[in-house]
Each structure stands twice: as structure tokens, then as C-alpha cells.
């Protein structure tokens, strides 16, 4: 029976690969990989010999129609990205949507993704949060920061290492230097690091220590200051009541 499997892969530590993910990748007819060279190392490690086909952000618009035809013909296909869960700041949405539109079954396996451990590691409130992924490079960036400055939920962002310092300066500018943040670096890997503190403190840290590796930033939401509860009496009424007493 035709089906598209969305299969998460480890974000660093190969021990995070699930038994089910390995089985599915061995059983399907085809694996769609963001980068066949990167995924080739993973498949070799787990002795998976299934044929791979390149499927990434630069060709997904062109390949989707052909993949839908193959699925309709009865093939089973697994989609993986270089790391984590496909479609989370990675290719996957277009093909998933096309499958839904064509009534082709889609099954997403639970598994590794970077923003969940980052959120939990941060020590910031995680009962309500928003995932922003990568912020716009130029157009719309300031507008997005102005909107996020008023956000009261914890915010999660993906930031490339060469843009981290710029982003931290923007945090200080738009959120204030006392806003609590956590920069999570190289999650699940040997040199995992979680740098917590105010925006100013974390900026100072990375001005002295060049950021490297995969980075997730968690930012506390804006604190809402409650106004003092107003008395139900006016000033004159209160004075009159006190005189009567």
C-alpha cells in the first residue's frame, strides 16, 4: 500500500535513532534525502541499503509531481532530512501537502528534533511557547522583532553561528538587555553547551567565545506588569465613608 513516511533522524548522537525508524527505512521502496552524502553515512552505519533520491529545497517544487505519481502507483517512500524531523525548518511540507490533497496516507514517526530539548534545557517557562524557526534575513526582520518584543510566550529560534552575535545584539535592542535567554549549542553532541543568562550577559559571553555548531536560542516572553487594583470608591466617597465611621 502506498504511503509517505516522515522519518526523524538524530540531530547529533546516533544512539537517538529509533528501532522503528531503522525498520521503516529498510522496508520502503525509496528514501528521499536532503543531502544523499550526509544521509549515506547514516544509512551505512545502520546497514540500510534502500535506494536514495535527492529531495531538497532547491528541487522539491520540480520533483513533487513525479513522487506523487510513484506513490499512486503503490510505492512506499520515506522522507528524511540531514538531521531532526523533516518539514521543521527543512523540506517536507510541500510533499506532505500534496499527499494529503491526493488522499495518499502520510505517517510521521516521533523522534529527534532540536527545539524540544532546547526548550526544556533552557529553564524558561515551557507551558506555552512559539517556534519561530529562522528569522527573515533582511526584508521583514525588523517588523518581526517588533512583533516578538510584545510576545509573552517563550520563543524558540534557530540561528546560524555566523549570525548569532548580530541576533544577540538585536535581542538587546528590541527585548532589552535584561531579557532572559538560553543559547543551546551542539545538542546531543560531545560538546553540547547551554549558555543561560540575560541578553547582555550571553552577548558578552559569545563576544569572547566564537560560536560554533548548530544553535537553538530560547527567549523568555515579555513580562506583563499588572496594574494596581483600583478602589471601587472615588477619593471623595472614601473620605466621606471614613468621616461617617
TrEMBL record:
Keywords: Cytoplasm, Methyltransferase, rRNA processing, S-adenosyl-L-methionine, Transferase
E.C. designation(s): 2.1.1.198
Transmembrane is among the record's keywords: no
Domain Tetrapyrrole methylase stretches: 3-202
Superkingdom to which the source organism belongs: Bacteria
Localisation per UniProt entry: Cytoplasm
GO MF annotation, one: rRNA (cytosine-2'-O-)-methyltransferase activity
InterPro entries, per the entry: 4pyrrol_Mease, 4pyrrol_Methylase_sf, 4pyrrole_Mease_sub1, 4pyrrole_Mease_sub2, rRNA_ssu_MeTfrase_I, SAM_MeTrfase_RsmI_CS
Keyword Transmembrane helix: no
Family label: Belongs to the methyltransferase superfamily. RsmI family.
The protein's name in its UniProt record: Ribosomal RNA small subunit methyltransferase I
Amino acid at each position: 500500500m502506498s504511503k509517505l513516511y516522515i522519518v526523524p533522524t538524530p540531530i547529533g548522537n546516533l544512539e537517538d535513532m529509533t528501532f522503528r525508524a531503522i525498520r521503516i527505512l529498510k522496508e520502503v521502496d525509496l528514501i528521499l534525502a536532503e543531502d544523499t552524502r550526509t544521509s549515506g553515512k547514516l544509512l551505512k552505519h545502520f546497514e540500510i541499503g534502500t535506494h536514495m533520491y535527492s529531495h531538497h529545497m532547491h528541487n522539491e517544487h520540480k520533483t513533487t509531481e513525479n513522487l506523487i505519481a510513484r506513490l499512486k502507483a503503490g510505492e512506499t517512500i520515506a522522507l528524511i532530512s540531514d538531521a531532526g524531523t523533516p518539514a521543521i525548518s527543512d523540506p517536507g511540507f510541500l510533499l506532505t501537502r500534496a499527499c494529503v490533497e491526493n488522499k495518499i496516507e502520510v505517517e510521521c514517526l516521533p523522534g529527534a528534533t532540536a527545539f524540544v530539548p532546547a526548550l526544556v534545557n533552557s529553564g524558561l517557562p515551557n507551558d506555552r511557547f512559539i517556534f519561530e524557526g529562522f528569522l527573515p534575513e533582511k526584508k521583514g526582520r525588523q517588523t518581526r522583532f517588533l512583533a516578538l518584543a510584545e510576545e509573552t510566550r517563550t520563543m524558540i529560534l534557530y540561528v546560524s553561528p555566523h549570525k548569532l552575535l548580530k541576533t544577540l545584539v538585536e535581542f538587546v535592542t528590541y527585548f532589552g538587555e535584561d531579557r532572559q535567554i538560553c543559547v543551546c549549542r551542539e545538542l546531543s553532541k560531545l560538546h553540547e553547551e547551554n549558555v543561560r543568562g540575560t541578553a547582555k550577559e550571553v552577548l558578552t559571553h559569545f563576544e569572547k567565545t566564537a560560536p560554533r555548531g548548530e544553535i537553538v536560542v530560547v527567549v523568555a516572553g515579555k513580562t506583563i506588569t499588572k496594574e494596581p487594583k483600583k478602589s471601587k470608591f472615588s477619593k471623595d466617597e472614601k473620605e466621606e465613608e471614613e468621616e461617617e465611621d
